[in-house]
Amino acid sequence: MAPVPPADPAPRPAPPPSPPWWRDRRIVPWVVQAVVGLLVLLLIAFLLGNLVRNLTAAGLLLSWRWLQQPAGFDISESVIPFNAQLPYWRALAAGLVNTIRAVLVGLVGATLLGTLVGMASFSHNGLLRRLARVYVEVVRNIPLLLQLVFWYFVVFLSFPNGVAAIQLPGVVLAKSGLYIAGFGEGLRWMGPTLVNGVWQAPVRLSVEFGALLTGLIVYSGAFIAEVVRGGIAAVPKGQWEAASSLGLSWFATLRRIVLPQSLRVIVPGLNTQYISLAKNSSLAVAVGYTDLYSVAETTLNQTGRAVEVILVLLAAYLTLDLLISALMNGLNHLVQIRER
Amino acid sequence: MSGALRLAALGGLVASLVGCAAGNDAPGSPTMAKIRERGRLVCAVDGAVPGFSTVGPGGAFVGIDADFCRAVAAAVLGDPTKVEFRPVTAGERFVALGSGEVDLLSISSTHTLSRDAAGGNALSFGPVFFYDGQGVMVPAASGVRSLRELEGKPICVESGTNTELNLADRMRELGVSYQPLRFQSGEQAYPAYEQGRCAAITSDSSLLAAKRSGFKQPAAHVLLPELLSKEPSAKVTIQADPAWADAVRWVTHTLVQAEESGLTQANIEARLAAARRDPSQAEARRFLGIEGDFGRQLGLPADFTVRVVKAVGNYGELFERHLGRATPLGLERGLNRLWNRGGLHIAPPFR
Fold first, then answer.
1. H or E element at residue B173
2. What CATH code is carried by the domain that includes residue A126?
3. Are residues B13 and B42 in the same domain?
4. Tens digits of per-residue pLDDT, A207-231?
5. A175-234 residues touching B, CB cutoff 8 A
6. pTM for this one?
7. Residue B141 sits in a domain of what CATH number?
8. From the list A58, A72, A301, which residue is nearest B91 (CB)?
9. Whole domain around residue B149: which residue ranges?
10. B222-274: per-residue pLDDT in tens?
11. Are B122 and A84 an interchain contact pair (Cβ–Cβ within 8 Å)?
């Protein structure tokens, strides 16, 4: 900062008379904000008051004692141990863990699929390019619920059992479940084996989980493919030309030059898709996978505590989505261009 | 202070409005006032259980549960066609009722303490409409003949139902581990079972029989002889409106009393005319609303019983029409006979 020049000896003109407060640009916005804020607060107070009044009238004022009562229903496929004698909060926790399991695997799968398809839409191979377009257009224009029902009832439930099951390297697809090779007893690599007509494998997933996961990955993958395509298209063409003049192959150009630059466009879009995927996972209830929503629905029905159960649900999904958002914002910060 | 005053004023206003709408001396029932104002009854049904409630060939709901809705509409509005059927799942039925979305649940709903109690679901159950027990259905070819043989096997069940809890209880008693496959509604559970995803499916026996009648090969599925529970199911209303609950309760009693008195859809007109001519038929005259003001005491028309029987017939007719031997369900009356014929249905005196 330069030193302040000496004051001008000439007399200054008198400042213009300040406008009345309702036209003062320093005051009016504050007043408007305060009024709007007050209205919003009043609305919230009214709604809450209404809720409490009606619940009191119906004798259903918020209470959380039910969380400690035994749930009474069983959950198969729970990651954390659960049985019917454990309290409702344990059931809800088991449901939440099941939801998180589906969301995490779904995120990874959808990202891989979406990236591959997004890249394929820039391929020199016309067939691959068109296939990618067809996949995206078909999948993202059909409601997810319909797709889940399709995967479950049409695809997964028509796998045969026993010897006739579909056998792929390291994976067996049967109606009774998906059997995947892994490290079994004594950390020995084990593939699926047929014992007395029943498949055994280190990793066993239910067809419900399989159908949910397939549905989520295929659906979100289409949207992510579009995000990736947009990100790649945002990188100036000159970068491709420069890379090819250096003799880099198509794949090397994409991997080393274009994709790193497109990340800053892709990541914010991915965030939205990830959040959608987490929320869409609640459609698991349609294919018999016991997730948080499914447990909450039964809990609600058995306890009659509709408001409390819905509050728990809201809080759980909000937390999950905010966590995903926070992680993605962190990632976004990392991939942004450091401008000098 | 002023808040309390305003509330009191509001309460008075609401009460007076309700009083006006009801249009008679009957105790004010907000639900009945709402139904009359709307001109139709909003009745929740399952909508996918043959014999109980399904969409028939003409697009109208058919079944014993659907007909009960019509009976209530006939009693309250005088017209059995003034019903708006609202199909709901087992999981959402109580919320739909509690929120005022529907006036009445005409779905197989087992009467239990926690559903009834003010500290539980705070619902009001009518008299038992259908005596049932929870059964288990398995494919005949599987050779399974008892619950113990289901060890380690997947069992399909609708989530949010009593059957889900009974299954968990019974399997714990037997010490049998199993995989519950919980589906939100029967529309998913039964196709999954039919496709062979589960070794068994459990629900009320009558529902299993009803669903089986819609299978591609009904004969390929059998019910296990053991029952898991008693399932007395009733029509449900909210506890906050006892006058409405009473009206629905006495519509059920009307159906049973009509069977006991030998009143049918076909002979009701003749019997009514006979009772009008003959003052000595005191009981019939009271039941048919010729003497006394029993209908009015419930907030219903004096001849609501006549309207009910004219609309749907008596309980026995309903049963035989939708569930009995002549239907694809082929259910026995069993416990659902009248009290004087070895069953459990009894109507308290209409006096």
1. helix B162-174
2. 1.10.3720.10
3. yes
4. 999 999 999 999 999 999 999 999 9
5. 175-176, 207-208
6. 0.76
7. 3.40.190.10
8. A301
9. 132-230
10. 999 888 989 899 999 999 999 999 999 999 999 999 999 999 999 999 999 99
11. no
